[in-house]
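User: quick one - fold this with cytidine-5'-triphosphate bound?
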Amino acid sequence: MLPANLASRIEHQLPVKLVEIIHTAGRIANSQHQNLYLVGGAVRDLLLEKPNLDLDIVVEGNAIELARQLTEVEPSSIITYPQFNTAKITGNRWSLDLATARSESYPQPGALPTVTPSSIETDLFRRDFTINAMAICLNPDRYGELIDRYRGQDDLKDKLIRVLHDNSFVDDATRIWRGLRYEQRLGFQLEANTLKLLLRDIPMLDTISKERIRYELECIFSEEQPEKVLRRADELGVLTKLHPALTGNGWLAAKFMAARQLSIPNSPSFSLYLALLAYRLTPSQCEILTLSLGLAKSVAQTIRQSTTIKTRLEALTNPKLSPSDVYRQLHHYSATAIIANIIATDSPVAQQYMETFLHHLRYVKSILSGDDLIAMGVPQGPQIKQLLEQLHQAKLDGRVTTRQDEEKLVKKWLIS
Ligand code: CTP
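Assistant: Sure. Structure tokens for the protein plus cytidine-5'-triphosphate:
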């Protein structure tokens, strides 16, 4: 049975400093005759006894003014967003997002909503799922009081993800991805009618901008086990909205797990996960995916390089390559693109070459510079570049180690 008043949950689950700040915020709101609430994911996670230090706070009044007064009493860094009437206060490993209670209406599906100040009741009604649509009052006289108009507590108990109304995915189709993310993260299920609506509204994902889809993918890749979300998305026909040739099967799960094992501290980058997700696409399919997500240049480059290496892996399965051959094959590519291939390839020989390149070969440098060669009598011109390359190769292959070795080699070339 969940407690009727959550004051003690707040005190036990949040760090002392954060509790102190919440108390202060509640007092300030009270002095201004405004109501203040903790809302959304933080309430859900308090009830589930899961850690969450990114708190969303809603005030029935002026959020920026409250945030400013709060940081006067509790000095912390603050950023305000007057165009949205919100403010963000950050501390050591925690954040408070303060917003004015608002209602939202969607001028057209997928567009950003038109916002008007409102009460907490309407603010909760604009939210995605019942488990995210609860609030806890933070004013001193009502501190810890849970507001749960949509039976979020019941759905938490029954492990259900349920929308608040039938048009929820039409208003904002990113909720399709959010629903799958919560379902898989929490081990919940989409409630039957919600699942029906989700399937009906999959085409509405076309109304969402590439930036917002990319953000959803970033959120998925920040989950502990993103492969679960992708597998479920595949099963329901959502994944193909990213690209029709994508699959989220056991291969992907195994590769994502391997990526975590290889990454320190256990959280692979967005580019690495995406390179693995896109790995089985052809280069031209990859290009379409990259464009549809509006990726940053460096990320797009990594994805592109990862598939290019894949098409050339055959050459790296020859067990007789010299270190300089391996260097020549790989030195144009980013470390992430190579790591994606180490994880994805089935060839232990290619894997070994790529690991040697990453851990050793890419750091090998010859000692002599262009100026040294000129001082030794090599005429200026393209020859300098060629000789430096040959020195580098000799160093990679272990034919020279010291400065004297390199000088000896240059003298030999000069004579010949
Ligand atoms: N929200 C929503 N619809 C969206 C995005 C957000 O209704 N498309 C609401 C939900 O009430 C959500 C809150 O805004 O709880 C905060 O959003 P966000 O920070 O994205 O989610 P959290 O619930 O905090 O979840 P997470 O644990 O994934 O950060």
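One thing worth noting: The mean pLDDT is 94.
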